[in-house]
Design goal:
alpha+beta, Rossmann fold, nine-stranded mixed beta sheet, four-stranded antiparallel beta sheet, 18 helices, 17 strands, 39% helix, globular
Length: 488
């Protein structure tokens, strides 16, 4: 095949892939009730509130605006207008202006108004229908409620609430889904320094952090691994659910962080916990055969932007690739550390405080493909949105709908993701395309089993590089093979 022909095929493939993404975006918009002829929209001629009709700036005007300081009111008004147009494009868009021009303007305005880098705005925006995306960015500007978890090793929620009310704390149970959580509305005393806090009667803990442990549902006398545990909010919750029976191994690769972990374990009166500091990727060689494993993975923190706004500007595409790579390595090790022989368990919970698909569904889907002996099961959580089963051209295992997503703008809690796996015996192995019966014993995880297959990620890394080049206006080389499709 000649070079020209190769190039032309590559360009065709790229165009087809981009058209596919556009179509998916339009379908999602339609599903979300967008781009419809909204009844009643006519009387909301946004942008004409001061008599001047709204006009999308030209490329030159945008360049000019970038040189100076943007008027926040102009930006606000333009965001509102772009959202409205994108929701009802056929009717409200200026002639000769494309959907992507409105999207581009909106993304630039969100980035400048809320202070994000362009890369992250784009990444987060894609997760939602247009109007909802604004709600998400807006929610990241507001603090979440202060919540505490009663330490049932030492007290009962009713008793704790009474003592704190007597100290001038205004509080209420968080919701029906937890019988240990309290929401603090106001307090005349510092809630992190009361005698009850120091005595370990409660943990200051975000409501969303309860969810992975509720999903893990540890049973009395079990042996549990908390693979990335510092500073121990979830470890001490697990220990309390075990009522100080069984054993929890609280691991964290960061030795410095194990100090606060150990301090919390002591304060909360947990007697069934051992602290250790290994890279999670060394498991199960260090220890294995756990009844349950929690992998609350290191992540980008895009679910907790209201707590740490540095995320808005300090994360690049490369960071997400590295994190996703680490998460994939860790999840395989977590699976291999879970005992399929466990009488009461054999479960793994994977969670992150991030909302990106690369760190959540893509990691879980990868684990399902690499470990045929695991399956997703219901998290047992009463609320939360279903995980994505397809996303921007990627198709995930349909069982991904069993995973749960939590959002600040929907659930008024930090953004979180929870997936629960059941680990089964590897009773059958694939040999030359045939299924061969294996003795009824668990195969030990071999070096190869635990190793990460970086070939798997190559298309994404390439795709990422291409996008970065494109964004910088550089010439993009043709794709080697179609990236971003099933089997990624
Ligand atoms: C989300 S935080 C864990 C929060 C904790 N589960 C809690 O509830 O308090 C992720 C933790 O992963 C640890 N970590 C990062 N890389 C790791 C690795 N390779 N193995 C084990 N832990 C790791 C970090 O030090 C960090 O403490």
């Amino acid at each position: 095949m000649g070079n020209m022909e190769k190039l032309s095929r590559a360009l065709d493939a790229e165009a087809a892939h981009e058209a596919e993404l556009d179509l998916e975006e339009m379908q999602n918009a339609a599903l979300a009730g967008e781009d419809h002829d909204d009844v009643g929209m006519e009387d909301e001629v946004e942008g004409e509130e001061d008599g001047e009709p709204f006009r999308l700036p030209t490329a030159e005007e945008r360049e000019e605006e970038k040189k100076g300081v943007s008027d926040v009111h102009v930006v606000q008004r333009r965001m509102r207008h772009c959202v409205r147009v994108l929701r009802n494009f056929k009717k409200l868009a200026e002639k000769d202006r494309s959907r992507s021009e409105y999207v581009e303007q909106l993304l630039a305005d969100i980035a400048s108004y809320y202070g994000y880098n362009d890369f992250l705005v784009n990444k987060l925006f894609q997760l939602f229908p247009v109007a909802e995306a604004i709600e998400f960015f807006e929610a990241n500007e507001v603090s979440r409620p202060v919540t505490i978890r009663t330490n049932t090793v030492k007290t009962r929620r009713r008793d704790l609430a009474q003592v704190l009310i007597n100290r001038g704390v205004n509080l209420e149970p968080i919701g029906k889904w937890t019988n240990v959580g309290l929401q603090v509305f106001e307090s005349s005393v510092p809630i992190g320094a009361t005698p009850e806090y120091l005595a370990g009667h409660y943990m200051l803990q975000a409501a969303s952090s309860f969810l992975p442990v509720i999903a893990l549902a540890p049973q009395l006398n079990e042996r549990v691994l908390d693979m990335a545990s510092a500073p121990g909010g979830k470890t001490t919750h697990i220990a309390a659910l075990l009522r100080n029976t069984g054993h929890v191994f609280a691991n964290d690769a960061n030795k410095a962080r194990t100090k606060s972990l150990a301090a919390n374990i002591h304060r909360m009166g947990c007697k069934n916990v051992t602290v250790c500091s290994y890279d999670g990727r060394e498991f199960p060689k260090v220890m294995g055969g756990f009844d349950r494993v929690l992998l609350d993975a290191p992540c980008s923190g895009t679910g907790v932007i209201s707590k740490d706004s540095s995320v808005k500007i300090n994360k690049s595409e490369h960071d997400f690739q590295l994190l996703s790579h680490l998460q994939k390595q860790l999840i395989l090790c977590a699976i291999d550390s879970t005992s399929p022989e466990s009488k009461s368990g054999g479960y793994l919970v994977y969670s992150t405080c991030s909302v990106t698909v690369d760190e959540n569904e893509a990691v879980v889907d990868y684990a399902l493909r690499k470990r045929p002996n695991v399956k997703l099961v219901d998290t047992g959580l009463e609320f939360g949105r279903e995980g994505f089963t397809k996303y921007r051209g990627k198709i995930f295992n349909p069982s991904l709908r069993l995973t749960r997503r939590f959002y600040p703008h929907v659930h008024n809690m930090d953004g979180f993701f929870v997936a629960k796996f059941k680990v089964q015996k590897r009773s059958k192995v694939q040999t030359g395309g045939k299924i061969a019966a294996e003795p009824d014993v668990e195969l030990p995880a071999t070096e190869e089993d635990v190793a990460f297959d970086s070939e798997e990620d190559r298309p994404f890394i390439e795709e990422g590089k291409r996008r970065q080049m494109k964004a910088k206006g550089l010439r993009v080389p043709p794709r080697h093979k179609s990236a971003g499709t099933k089997g990624s």
